[in-house]
Amino acid sequence: MAMLESGEMYLETIYILSQKSSAVRGIDIGEYMGYTKPSVSRAVNLLKKDGLVDTDKEGHIILTAEGKEKAVKIYERHTLLAKLLVNLGVDEETATEDACRIEHYLSDKTFEAIKAHVKKYGTK
User: Fold this and answer.
1) Domains observed in the chain
2) I need a labelling partner for 119 at 20 to 30 A (CA). Which of 10, 42, 46, 58 fits?
3) Contacts of 49 (CB under 8 A, 6+ apart)
């Protein structure tokens, strides 16, 4: 079953925060995304149920191998699309916001074509 955009956003956020700190807490996710603690708790429990995250004995949120694989893929889409949009002349803030929207709906086939194009022709 395909993951919903919100689940992908949580995975990406957990991945980003885990790159900055080894201890990702629900409160960190909430602050980063602008969501309440109950919303974060519900989302994390759904991700746990799907086997994408786990928690350690201190309650820190950890991506499972499958969760990390999905998160890295989502983050790669986001960063490449944002860079591409900036190279097309879109300001960085708009490019980041638009990349965030696009990354969830782009097919793997189209994204691979974009990656191949960027690899062949590069970006600034």
Assistant:
1) 5-69 (1.10.10.10), 72-121 (1.10.60.10)
2) 10
3) none
